[in-house]
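Hi V.,

You were right to ask for the full record rather than a summary. Here it is.
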Amino acid sequence: MNTNVNPTKKIDTKVLLSTLWIVIMINMLKADILSLNIPGAAEEVAKTSVSSGASIPQLMLIGAIMGQLGIAMIILSRVLKYGINRWANIVVSLVTIAYIWGGAASYPHYIFIATVETFCLLLIIWIAWKWRTLEA
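Predicted structure:
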């Protein structure tokens, strides 16, 4: 039995940021899956397409790009060097918050999940902002 375990050991910042991105991506997928089961959801996408002036494939491309940004941050948070890592997490978090609420649906499940995602993203911003090179 290992008696050298330190219960107060701090989680590595890169690991914590990466883990938060995993939580965000799982929540984004869950929100989309639940929304697909709502009657009329496809028609809402069509209405959004008309009102935004973007075609449905263009809207889907934007969604795919935003999804890939979050997925990329899972690995980039672990491998990027301190300075670029810090700013990438801050900037991508802000862009993701804008994406989440810019395309928000009024469904209760979406509002709940978007709130959880936003909390995690704000936590990422706070952690990255407070992150100092001694930890990097």
